Amino acid sequence: MKNLTTALKIAPAFLLASTIMHAQAQVQDSSTKEKNIEEVVLIGYGKQKKTDLTGSITALSTEDFNKGAITTAEGLINGRAPGVVITQSGTPGNEATIRIRGGSSLNASNDPLLVVDGLPLDGVSLATINPNDIESFSILKDAASTAIYGSRGSNGVILVTTKKGSKRLRISLNAFTTVNTLAKKIDVYSPDQFRQLINQYVPSKVGMLGNSNTDWQDEIFRTSVTSDINASVSGSLFNEVPARLSLSNMDNSGLLMTSRFRRSAANFALSPSFFDDYLKFNITGTYSYTFQNKASEDAIRNAISYDPTQAVYDPNSPYGGYTEWIGQGTNRPVGVSNPVSLLKNRHDVQNFKRFLGNINMEYKFHFLPDLKVILNAGLDSKELDGHVVVNKNSRSGYFAVNNVYDFYGEDSYSDESILNKNANVQLNYTKAFGKLNVDVMGGYEYQNYHKVSSASGNTLLYTLDPTNNFYNPDSKPDLNLQAFFGRLNLGFDNKYLLTVNYRRDGSSRFSKNNRWGNFGGVAAAWRISEENFLKSNSTISDLKLRASVGKTGQQDIGVYRYDYFKTYNVSTTLYYQFGNQFYEIAKPNGYNENLKWEESVKYNLGLDFGLLNNRIKGTVDFYLADTKDLLSIVPEGPLENLRIIGPKNIGKLQSRGIDLGLDVKAIQKENFTLNFNYNLSYNKIEIKELEVNGIDKGGVGLGGFVQTFREGYSPYAYWVYQQVYDSNGMPIEGAYVDRNGDGEITSADKYNYKKPQPDVTMGLMTNMTFGKNWDFSMAWRASLGNYVYDQISADRSHLNHINNTVDGTINNAPVDFNNTHFSTANKMSDYYLKNGSFLKLDNLTVGYTFNKFITNTSSLRLYAAAQNVLIITKYKNLDPEVFNNGIDNSIYPRARMFTLGVNVNF
């Protein structure tokens, strides 16, 4: 691993040096300087030329996207932007976790704000969007850029632009088929090894061993197929209106037996203009339907533990014909459930319908073309219904009702309806006064969020247990957000640039005293390359220094929408007698009138550079962010706010780091091109102040916690005992270092050892074309310094798990038991903290294009690809890239995929 780390550190310098030598040779052969096309970048409520940007913004378009079998929108940019870490789920249809510069909160949302075609969405909800419909991403990272979004800009902003129509008729078809395979399994004892284990450690239970040889992971996982087809047509309606329509269908069976995700989507875009383009419209809309069969992921955990000497099926079993452990002297099932039964006898189906649409109108006043009014109106409508059915003859369907065990099964329903409406109006004035360019914008925004949900409970038990099974509608008041915002852009002599943002936000989440907040930012830039002393420089073609400071906010604390309200629960069974009258007793609910939004002040210093006629382009940013009034769900004091737990503003957090991005056109020949994109990010997050220092986090069962919120440490830093080892390097059970020297081991001896967040993340993409027709792409990612808590082993690699005396069963275990021989669980030992650093080859793609396939403007591209190709890591379980803040209690494995695809354009 040391050699790997060293290689990763050397790679950027080697890449840069070799490219400069190649590029200098080619530039010297060129007699004229290449003219650069001005790239326009979305900046939030507007656009700006990339050369005029003052903030830290990463723009990615179709040529920058990951190649191959990309079925999710976030998959297009995973590893492509410095400071952006995307953790994709192996579960088909599940959303990814996206963090920009580590996030800014403890327990409130750390998700960036997602804006699609001008419409701000709730949460990171990209799973329903067809990646083939996306034209570009613009990622706003510093506060001076995100302050225009005020109370929602603390964790960064991702602006997504979908593809628009064209005046020329274009038809495109993209289709691929992928074979999904299991890349790795958890290393547990084989059937023969397990028999030896029981013979050695639990000889009294040898008679419980079966005669089968079952690999339970092989039984629940399968090789599956993903198919994806997308067709689009763009052109002019009535010879005047640019339009585009796309239709797509994706079907992913998933690796886990019975799991499935299907997405069908239609996207349209219209761009009519009138009065010589004085009046322009952009109308976009996406309708999607997704179907998800959510296979029980408990089966993955059970497959690690279930006895490998038992058969999958037992014709004598009362539980649907599946092998199950049955307690002695009773018919009740005990121990770990049969993982195959868990999958085959439970169906958890969700249907999700979504319409996402936006209308943008821009009008330039005829009497003053420099002044224009912009109107945006959009909505995001979601309808979700779920249905869970459990076979009553299965173990999952056999349980107690009023202390009576029987085969009941389950039939339950849930539904959710969400309507997110947004409208904003802007006035924009742009004018050049000699060398001074002025761009002024001001506006007002209104957003309303309406949600209604319900859950039925188990309808099969309504008559048997009506108290615990009921139809439970949940309709909370709407959330409302209103804002006034403005921005001033000044540019003088194409060299000196200034941006000032301001937003006044009001949120219905907070009381009148804390409802409104002021947010803003200032950014300045100096285009040094436009100064006379650099204009004729043949090496430095672009050089710009940037600096910014801004304040943003955070107001999302999950289900606590109106926590300042004083509300009451009225009893239907308890009464108070006053004279001859009986009054229902009402109990006050908890509330917090002092709750307010988090505020983050962020500083950024950046340098953009271009070398050798911009053959090498790069950006480097240094940033510091201080967040105060952290929102968190914490225990409250006796009688405080009339509850035990609730949301409070509890402290301060600091994040600092460095982002580096490089784009290198290493070789640009007629028959051969070679381009590199490299990014590196360093990030450190530290809790600076807490109302109560030392909040337990990372519960691992039996009252044990292995993480903490503590001043001076990263969020979710590991807080464990220091393991003592013998002369052979074996951990000594229950032996920990007495760190405070008081002669006994107590919780005061726990210490911080490592953290789940990486110190450094990297991405490297290589694009190559050769022979005019061949293309090749390769994408790597790396993460250094992140540690994982191996709960898979901590829960299972001890004798009390193998010989479970509580339920009288025997269970398999990870082979890590060979390294410990622990008799009991030692979950709070630092032994279970493992180095999760990794280097991943995410994608390999090779393609061949037949030009002038049918007509002179048509083309046919055939390509083959592999995803999740290689992982180099010390971590022994499935994958070091885990959710749940670094605790690995088994994950849905990410598939290794092999793809064949075709792309046809007319």
Automatic annotation (TrEMBL):
The keyword Signal applies. Pfam families: Plug, TonB_dep_Rec_b-barrel. It is found in: Cell outer membrane. It comes from the Bacteria. One of its GO terms (cellular component) is cell outer membrane. Residues 1-25 form the signal peptide. Residues 301-869 form the TonB-dependent receptor-like beta-barrel domain. Keywords: Cell outer membrane, Membrane, Receptor, Signal, TonB box, Transmembrane, Transmembrane beta strand, Transport. Belongs to the TonB-dependent receptor family. It is a multi-pass membrane protein. It comes from Chryseobacterium potabilaquae. The gene is susC_4. Residues 50-157 form the TonB-dependent receptor plug domain. This is TonB-dependent receptor SusC. SUPFAM superfamilies: Porins.
